[in-house]
Amino acid sequence: MWAIGCTALALVLLGIFTYNDLVADRNRVRAAWSGVDIQLQRRHDLIPQLVAAVQGYAAHEQATLTAIAELRSRRQADASMADRGQAEHELGAYIGRLLALQENYPELKASDNFLQLQRDLVAVEDRLQEARSAYNRTVFDYNTQIQNFPLLLLARPCGFLPAEFFQAEAAVNAKNSDEATGKT
Length: 184
Description:
Number of domains: 1
Distance between the termini: 62 Å
CATH class: Mainly Alpha
Order of helices and strands: HHHHHHH
CATH architecture: Up-down Bundle
Strand content: under 5%
CATH topology: de novo design (two linked rop proteins)
Number of strands: 0
Radius of gyration: 23 Å
CATH superfamily: LemA-like domain
Number of helices: 7
Oligomer: single chain
Largest sheet: none
């Protein structure tokens, strides 16, 4: 009887410690996403300033400026990672086009405000890439934990669901591939 009691107690303690580890892993994923979200917000905060700086020099580039405004407003907290990744990738492409305008407008290239915004945006993009990598590593570790036996026996009934990776380029490439093959 004593052996059965000790075994039962050991299993209960193991379940408690495992559950707590899974909660900690899930919270690490949430914290890592917060890092990505902060960098995305910094990027979104720079966009109006960049658009305003370019508007004065390149008024006929209205299509690019409008597309950037639309993509910036499409940012939704409740969208899936794939949707957000796609929107952020498209936004990055338009920002690249906006920054490339300096080649056509020498006075824009000489603008201290534009150059500072460009440096700020490059710094944010670097931090965003680091945060995205850290998030995806954390998601990988968490998903591996909840999918490995025997943890999956506790993870699934307790509601620990796999987290989505944040893959901006992959989401756009998949969409473009589906469009090219006629899938929707």
